[in-house]
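Continuing the series of single-chain predictions for the mutant panel. This is the parent chain; the variants come on the following pages.
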Amino acid sequence: MVYKERKRLSRLGLGNKLLTFFLLAFVATIVWFIVLIVKDGIKIAWTGNWGRFVLFIVCELLIFFIGMVLVNISSKQMGIKYRALGLLTGWIPIVNLVVLTKIIGVTGSEYRFEKKKMKLNDKRIDKQICRTQYPILMVHGVFFRDFPKFNYWGRVPDELQKNGATIFYGEHQSAAAVADSAEELADRIKDIVRETGCDKVNVIAHSKGGLDTKYAIAKLGMDKHIASLTTINTPHNGCEFADYLLSKAPEGMKEKVAKAYNSALKKLGDKDPSFIAAVSDLTASACRRLNDEIGDYDYKKHGVYTQSVGSWMKEAGSGAFPLNMSYLLVKHFDGPNDGLVGEPSFHFGENYTFLENKKSTRGISHGDMIDLNRENIPGFDVREFYVQLVADLKKKGF
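Parent structure:
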């Protein structure tokens, strides 16, 4: 895996350099020919230099073609947008140079960023800063599964493993009531303990996964097998906007959506998904009942270290679809939010970390916290955030 990544970055770096050289050489060639035209007139300039001009352009186009092929097969940050723009604007004068400049910027930034990360991991490889006493169990949120070929946590698990972490996944259904998901997680934890002899796990749970794990600890006796619980953007106090949507949506529409979702997820591996039960348990009213049911359960007294993390989208345009659509609705009911969960709902445990991304107006969305789009976000390195989070667990003896 590391070898493949080094080869990818090598191709990306070479492609970026070739495109940069092409852009500079192409502009220089055009300027040179314009100067000749101004000096000698177009007829003399062309007659005396057409051979060199054509040779320069052919060589530059060859360099451009090779560079574009390399960045297209190597870049993970260009996305469909810039690949499509590069294809569609290739023969539109001026516009193609503007798009090319942007492609050079994106791929150059990616190369430098990933190269820096690779050097950092090489430097600390012997320290194994994420080799915790207990393995890491990563618990997904609602409406997703732990698919083998599309990791819910993006590039995060691989980065943790590079730094010594042992990773397991919840492997529970995508949508179910909190109590049902908690039972699945409890069974999964028992399996991990039995298979590995690890005795306990450190749980990192995103969104609804945090509620599921809390229930498993407080109500299903998993405190004896969970050393720590870190919740990521979990709605501990629920979502007021969810109450509003469920109360206003027509019953017929809710039933149709639920039926379509449950049918699709059964085909993808869920045994008995329940869209309505999952959504209902994310409402503020349901979370108040859950918190009342758990009561004054003392996690620390039962030997479970608890902490929570939340993040903030600064504007609707900060998140990808559908979070850019839900942001304003959530803001109306729940205040500052990550596109789904309001900031007041994130708080839980002995420590609370709120991520604002002060270096960018972009903010950090609910999806960004699990590297959903595999995007290098200016001002927030999601992979390094989790590396440091797990390294801190190791320092605390977990």
